[in-house]
Structure formats: structure tokens, C-alpha cells
Amino acid sequence: MSEADDRLPQPLTNSWTPVLPPLEFAAWTETRETLHLLCQIVGKVRMALTPRRNHWWHVPFYVTPRGLTTGTLYEPNDPLLSLDIEIDLLEPGIEVRNNRGGMFDVAAPLDQMDCKWMFREVTDAVSAAGVDVDLLGTPYDLPWCTTPFAQNEDRRTFDLGAAARYFRALSWVERTFQEFRGDFLGKQTPVHMFWHSFDLALTRFSGKAVDKKPSEFRNPRDAEAYSHEVISFGFWPGDANYPQAAFYSYTAPEPDGLASEPLSAGGWFDVGGSHMARLDYAELRQAEDPRRMLLGFLESAYLAGAKRAGWDVEALRVPPEEYFETA
């Protein structure tokens, strides 16, 4: 048994272990892209109406029992007005709610839409909730869609069943990530979804600043995200370059010898000159205990990065439950 396996919790009852749904990349390409575009539109509202936070924490969404939410947003000129936006993936739709009791739904189902319609409906609903927001109306970093939202009249397929399957997988992964998150004592992110890259992510920090000037980063935005040492983990539905859903982990800055460390599942892959731990979702689906496999993968990837980067693993570990019972 590896060091990572030895630290895993005991398996839960079989009733907790789900039959994870398939997420074949080609089977839901247009639905996935449509949902990604919708998330980008709602995400731009989130950025416009949320105070800035370190490491871009004012950007992502959070998983709810029904879909994805922006969390609380704030009207810039009215300190007593707030709202939120939820993308419902069980009964697909978009709902905007404010703290004055208002609820504002989009006017038509998501399976009958184009990008121009999505953009107009979201901004109109936000305006009806009492907030006028000026958005940068272009997709961010999407090679397959560069047309401004308000000009894109291409009709898009949105398969309700495919969206529900994705959400079922996402909900299970989010819960497992939350369990993994509970073992770390140091600074870490919430479990959140970055709508620009469309991945559910969790990041741990050592607390040590990176000795690197903003101008030395390949992308200027990375200076904010990687100002301190991190080990990140995520779940991503894939793209044209890697057409399948997968889990990942990377350490930044990458320490020497990272890819020589053992993983409990998956493997190390070279991605643009850096090494990433990766476990395919399809492989996880076939496991006898998917939860234990995923927790083992996350823990072993963390220990690999922490060991090579010189993190104080024991000081950053949450004490076992027995400690709190006797304290």
C-alpha cells in the first residue's frame, strides 16, 4: 500500500458509490459548447458585479443542488440591492433573483436558442432585477467561437439529457473534491468552476510567495493566479486537443523530479513543457470504488508536488477526528 493509499478514509457504504454517467466527448459536443457559451455570458455578469478578490476568486461559479450559481452579486450604485444567477441543469433554465423578492426567468427553454438570444435574455433578466450592467460581449479564449455574443445567430443544440448527465457527474465530483479539501489546514480555494476554461477546480497554497515578476509570466493574468506556490486539482470535460473528460493536478512552479513521483492511478503527461498528473474519467467509471480511486489520485498528486517542492506536509494536515473528540 502506498503512502497516499494509507491516508485515505475507509470506503463508505455501497449505496454511496454511484453509477457514474458516460461523458463521451463526441456525443455531447454541441451541448457542451452551448453550455460553455452560456456560462461565459453569465460569468461576465459575475465579474462585473463582484468585488475583486485575490487569485481571481471573484470569477468562478459554485455547484448547487440544481446547477451552477454565481453566488451573491452586488449593484454598484445601491448598497441595499444584491442578486444572484443560477443556471439550472435539472430543469434547464436561467433564474435571476434579487434580495427584494424578485425572481426573473429567461423567456424560453434552453433547447431552443442561439447565442444572441442567450446574451439578450441574461442581460434583460439582470436589468429586470434592478441592475444595468455593461458587459464585454465577446467569448474569452474560445478558438471555436469568436463572434460577439450579440451578433451570433447560429442555432445551437442543447440536449437536456446530456446536460443532466454532465451535472450528475459534476455533482459527484464536487462532493468528492469537498471531502479531499477537508484534509488541508493551509490556505486553499473553494471548490469552484472557472467558466472561461470550463473546469471544476481546487487549489492548495504552501504560503510561500513566488520570486517572479509579473512581466516574466507567459500570460500577464498568470501573475495574479500564481503569485504563490500552488498545487492545483481539477475536473475538465475535454476539448479538441484532448477529447475526453479527465481529472488533473499540477504543481506551480514545477519542482525538479515531479514526474518521477508515483501516482495511485492515472499518469504523468507533458503538457506544453510542464508535467500534469491525469486520470481519465472513463477509467474512473470502471473502478470498483470510484470515490476511493479519485481520492487516492488527488492525494498522491498532492504528495508528489508537496514532497518535491518542500512543503511541510504534516504542518498543513488537518488533525484526525479523534483529536477534536478529545480536545
What key phrases describe this protein's structure?
327 residues; alpha+beta; 6-stranded antiparallel β-sheet
What can you tell me about this protein's structure?
About 2% of the residues have low confidence. The chain has 8 helices and 14 strands. The protein starts with a helix and ends with a helix. Helix 2 runs parallel beside helix 3 and helix 4 crosses helix 7. Strands 1, 2, 3, 4, 5 and 6 form a 6-stranded antiparallel β-sheet that branches. Strands 9-10-11-12-14-13 form a 6-stranded antiparallel β-sheet. A two-stranded antiparallel sheet has the order 7-8. The chain is α+β, with helices and mostly antiparallel strands and 327 residues long. The radius of gyration is 21 Å and the shape is globular. A hairpin with a 4-residue loop joins strand 4 and strand 5.
Describe this structure in a few short sentences.
With 327 residues, this protein is of the alpha+beta class. It has helices at residues 3-6, 29-48, 115-128, 160-181, 222-225, 281-285, 290-309, 321-326, and strands at residues 62-63, 67-69, 73-74, 82-88, 93-98, 103-105, 113-114, 155-156, 192-194, 199-209, 228-236, 246-252, 267-271, 274-280.
Biggest sheet record: 6 strands, antiparallel
The number of helices is 8
**Shape, please?**
globular
Estimated share of beta-strand residues: 15-25%
Q: For the CA atoms, what is the radius of gyration? A: 21 Å
Structural classification: alpha+beta
Q: Tally the beta strands.
A: 14
Termini Cα gap: 31 Å
Q: Estimate the mean pLDDT confidence.
A: 88
Oligomer: single chain
What is the helix fraction of residues, given as a range?
A: 25-40%
N-to-C order of helices and strands: HHEEEEEEEHEHEEHEEEEHHH
Low-confidence stretches: 8-14
